[in-house]
Amino acid sequence: MRRPTFTRPRVRGAAGAALAAMIAATAFAAPVAADVAAPDVPPGETASENMTHLSNQPKNGALQGTGSDIAFQGKYAFAGNYDGFTVYDLSDKENPEQVVQVYCPGSQNDVSVYKDILVLSTDSSRSDDSCASTSLPATEKSAWEGIKIWDISNPLAPEYIKSVETSCGSHTHSLAPSKDGRNLYAYVSSYSPNATFPDCQPPHDFVSIVKIPLQKPTSAKVVSTPVLFPDGGYEGDPDRRASTTSGCHDITTYAKYDLAAGACMGDGILMDIKDRERPKVISQVRDTENFAFWHSATFNNDATKVVFTDELGGGGLATCTGEYAPELGANGIYDIERGRHGKKELELKSYYKIPRINTADENCVAHNGSLIPVKGKDIMVQSWYQGGVSVYDFTDSSNPRELAWFDRGEGVSSGGTWSTYYYNGYAYSNDLGIGFDTFDIDDSIDGKAERVKQKSLNPQMQEPFGR
């Protein structure tokens, strides 16, 4: 989720505005009109015959904010919320149990885990770095934003041990361990600078890299801020509501291949991260016809493809009504090809968007997902806000096709599903409004994947399967 670039200045200091307000702020006429069909998913739980909704754990207690990202380790899922994070025990995979709730407000609270470390992103201006902080305008120099580091050696008793302030906060972050295993690097993504924000000054064309020594995580600090866009990046297009590049929204690392893919507002990039502290952009692409906001990235298993998502409208638009062309608010599927002198280059092959028609009151656009570990195939499960959950095959990059889906229909959730990830035989989803969901996918799709046992899953820190 993001805040829109052209409709208003970046709003900081609130732990998540109401979705209705965001929709009003981002609404604009559809750039491309098409024949509009009647909505084909009525209110209430509806799924294809090869996908089953098993359970929902409702939001409760102190964490009443927006549900955000998820990370997994061992038998636990760590689910972010604008008010903190929740730990679920997945021992009963079909009906997870909430075992810990940590109150620590600061949107988005996107979460990653690595060994005994949990990292939480704060991208709203706070009075300080504590879990008792309050909102503060970003125009005040004393305001704090950045990452919070927790010790989860005991997942049932997370301990907050360190904070690191970063320029423009931390909208999201992505982890990359060093080759010697001694350090963990966090690539901090943030964007939308403003001359009135003392800690978020234009042009903000860099990424903050935080080094976390695993033996002494309390020594974590920013070690570099490499410029990724020396030419300033894409200038944006107000007519399409296409965003100016001023930082990255999300970066996905793939340490095995020393690669990272950045979704950077107006640009998509591929980076060489052999030197973890000095990443180098090796390929840069723009889609000045269809993409409006490069939001996130997912490699396929052998790092020969990248799926970039376009969060047209910042998560508040109903782009699945049929009024928007199938290339808008969609995934862009890129092959990584060898160009001149063996250089790796991104090459657009196709777009993928869910085929169902939604109502004009259902926000629907491409959002967070992960691979389903079926060896030899490229299959992904992905959230589409109120468009629901989609499972699709992009093994043929030029001809992606949907395999299964789930959709609650209009009015059941206040915003729909933020992130859906596959972990050890099941798909788990964090809904903005109504909690944590579990899905079973038919064996005809994920039968081989069910035999893959993962020790952890951070969707923004990919690791290979089936090797």
Describe this structure in words.
- Helix content is 3%, strand content 40%.
- The protein has 2 helices and 30 strands.
- The strands form 7 sheets. The chain has a 5-stranded antiparallel beta sheet, with no helix packed on it. A 5-stranded antiparallel beta sheet has the order 6-5-4-3-30, with no helix packed on it. It has a 4-stranded antiparallel beta sheet with strand order 2-29-28-27.
Helical residues, percent:
under 10%
Strand content: 35-45%
Describe the main β-sheet briefly: 5 strands, antiparallel
* Distance N to C terminus: 33 Å
Radius of gyration: 20 Å
Number of strands: 30
Tell me the strand order in the biggest sheet: 1-26-25-24-23
* Nearest-integer average pLDDT: 91
- Class of secondary structure makeup: mainly beta
- Counting DSSP H or I runs of 4 or more residues, the number of helices is 2
Shape descriptor: globular
pLDDT < 50 stretches: 2-36
